[in-house]
Amino acid sequence: MIATARCRTLRQSGTGSLGRRILAAVTWIYIAWSLVPVVLAFAASVGVGPSAESGPLGFDAYRFALSNSGVLTTFRHSVLLATATVCIALPLGAGLGLALSHVARRAWQPVRASLLILVALPHTALAVAVFYLFAFVIRAHLGSVAQSVAHVTVALPFVSLIVWTRVVLLDASYEEQAADLGASPLSTIRRVLLHCVRRPWSSRRPSRSPFRSTKSH
């Protein structure tokens, strides 16, 4: 029984199947809506679309960008900033999500409320608040460090809530079974919880047991 345990977050019922389809539909609509401005901007840059200037199709804008040192510097800075944000927000958010799913004390309720507020707050308002904090309260230099902190502040709640929700929906017996097999708390997180959390929400394919090698650790 333990050897064939699988990571399932939703039961294979009619309600669960309908909920997954609705969630998938909303997700794809949101992704499509988010890509519309990108597609329109790219079309305009190559001379296609209603907002583009009349003329032949071309990539002059991209040739100019690749030959301009200022644009290349800005692009490299953006890539480094995005990489640093992922490297910092992903482990911190995952750890916070795991903590929220295992701590039921009242002291953690403000943390949960803060995460929900940060997600629901419009990014424009959050950006103004962070800018005011660094520029007028802390009076810090608005350089790469301040930008990294601001980006992590925006990304951290999303990572935490995703991991928290995934762990809450998992069967609590997984951790109990891992403890019965002699796994330490750290090994349970690494070999059981993270194994289950990283699987897709609606995956129906059978997975390898998260307890496959827990007993020896």
Note the overall shape.
Answer: extended
What amount of the residues lies in strands?
under 5%
Give the overall average pLDDT: 75
Helix content: 55-70%
Order of helices and strands: HHHHHHHH
Folded structure, characterized:
The chain is mainly alpha-helical and 217 residues long. It has a domain at 11-67. It is built from eight helices and no strands. The two termini are 20 Å apart. 15% of the residues are buried.
Keyword list:
single chain, 217 residues, mainly alpha, 8 helices, 0% strand, disordered N terminus
Strands, helices and their partners?
Blueprint (H helix, E strand, L loop, with lengths): L13 H32 L14 H8 L1 H34 L6 H12 L2 H15 L6 H26 L3 H8 L4 H13 L20
What does this entry show, briefly?
The protein is an all-alpha fold. The protein is built from eight helices and no strands.
